[in-house]
Each structure stands twice: as structure tokens, then as C-alpha cells.
Design a protein that fits this description.
This protein is an alpha+beta fold. Helix content is about 45%, strand content about 20%. The protein is built from six helices and seven strands, in the order ββββββαβααααα. The strands form two sheets. A four-stranded antiparallel sheet has the order 6-1-4-7. A three-stranded antiparallel sheet has the order 3-2-5, with no helix packed on it. α4 crosses α5, α4 (about 150-165) packs across α6 and α5 crosses α6 (about 180-194). The protein is globular, with a radius of gyration of 18 Å.
Length: about 190
């Protein structure tokens, strides 16, 4: 069933396949695919193969910024913006490096008696976020060049809705903001998202 997480998610698929639906768009997860989601994404994972395995790191903004003065730290990462691509396909070497960081963090969190366990884990998580940003930037350039105008319009529309859904609930507002007709916007979003 579709669900919304309370936390930020970084998922790394290590084997098998599945369909991943993020905000009504469907992506194919396979080995080395990476899922990047925020509490504002609605997720659904289905049609998974018998051997499907995905490792997830889920964390709250509060955990990450607990000792950090900058409460907008997470907003600096492009992959956690509402219009970002939620599934990317890094190289096998990039995924292995991320999994090494994941395993290090897992080991640190399992050390119950260590007095600085949470601080160390928070630092490792920060390192992981920067590694993911580097990978995302490299792959986003490739993906953006392959994106159609209709897909780009859909992403821009979702970004606007994310920021203005409380004040503006009519199609005309979003069409005007995107410099297209409301009919074109409606037809394009329906075609892209189904």
C-alpha cells in the first residue's frame, strides 16, 4: 500500500527487482538502484522479486540537526527537494562505497554502551549525505539531458504544488506560473503520471 514516511529515506537495492512508485510516478528498482525520499513523498514498493533486498537508512530532521545550528541543513541537498528524481542508478563501485558507510553506521549504532554512539552515527550520516549528493549531481546531469519537456513540466508542477498547495488549489494558478495553458498542463500531467 502507498505510505508516507515520517523520516528521510536513503534506500540502496542490493539484489532483485521491484517497482517503486513515488508521488504517482513509477520507477524500476534493480540491483544498485538508489531510492531518495522525504516525508513529503508518497511511496509504494510492489511487484518485488523473491530475492529483492533493499537496505534503508531512515532518519528524522531532528536527529540530524540536534547539535547543528543550521536547521535548514537538509534543504541544501538537491536530492531531498520535492522535484528531484527519487530513484537513480549509481555505478556498482559507488553503491559499494555507500554500503561500506551504511555498515559502519550500523556497527556504531549497535554499540549500546558507547557514550558518543549517537554523535558518531550523526557524523557518519552527514558524510553519507555528502557522498550521495556527489553521486546525485553526477547522475542528475545525465538524467536531466534525457528528460522530455513533458517530464520536466511535471517536475516543475510538483515543485510548485509542494510549496503553494495550502494557498492555491486551482489549476489556472499553476498553469500561469509555468507559462502554459491550464488544458495543456492538465493533459501533460495526466499523460506523464497516468
Amino acid at each position: 500500500y502507498p505510505y508516507r514516511s515520517d523520516g528521510y529515506i536513503i534506500g540502496i537495492c542490493t539484489r532483485g527487482t521491484a517497482e517503486v512508485e513515488v508521488n504517482l510516478q513509477i520507477y524500476h528498482a534493480k540491483a544498485d538502484a538508489m531510492l531518495l525520499a522525504t516525508p513529503f513523498h508518497i511511496l509504494r514498493i510492489y511487484n518485488s522479486s523473491e530475492d529483492f533486498l533493499c537496505r534503508f537508512i531512515v532518519f528524522s530532521k531532528t536527529f540530524l540537526t540536534e547539535n547543528n545550528v543550521n536547521s535548514h541543513f537538509l534543504e541544501s541537498f538537491g536530492y531531498f527537494k520535492s522535484a528531484s528524481l527519487p530513484v537513480i542508478y549509481p555505478s556498482h563501485d559507488e553503491v559499494n562505497m555507500l554500503l561500506d558507510i551504511y555498515m559502519l553506521m550500523k556497527k556504531k549504532l549497535e554499540r549500546d554502551g558507547h557514550q558518543y554512539r549517537m554523535e558518531i552515527s550523526r557524523s557518519i550520516l552527514t558524510s553519507l549525505l555528502y557522498e550521495v549528493q556527489s553521486i546525485y549531481e553526477n547522475h542528475h546531469v545525465i538524467i536531466k539531458s534525457k528528460q522530455t519537456r513533458k517530464q520536466e513540466l511535471n517536475m516543475l508542477f510538483q515543485e510548485l504544488v509542494f510549496h503553494h498547495y495550502k494557498e492555491h488549489r486551482n489549476v489556472q494558478y499553476y498553469a500561469d506560473a509555468l507559462y502554459v495553458s491550464s488544458k495543456h498542463l492538465t493533459e501533460t500531467i495526466k499523460e506523464v503520471t497516468g
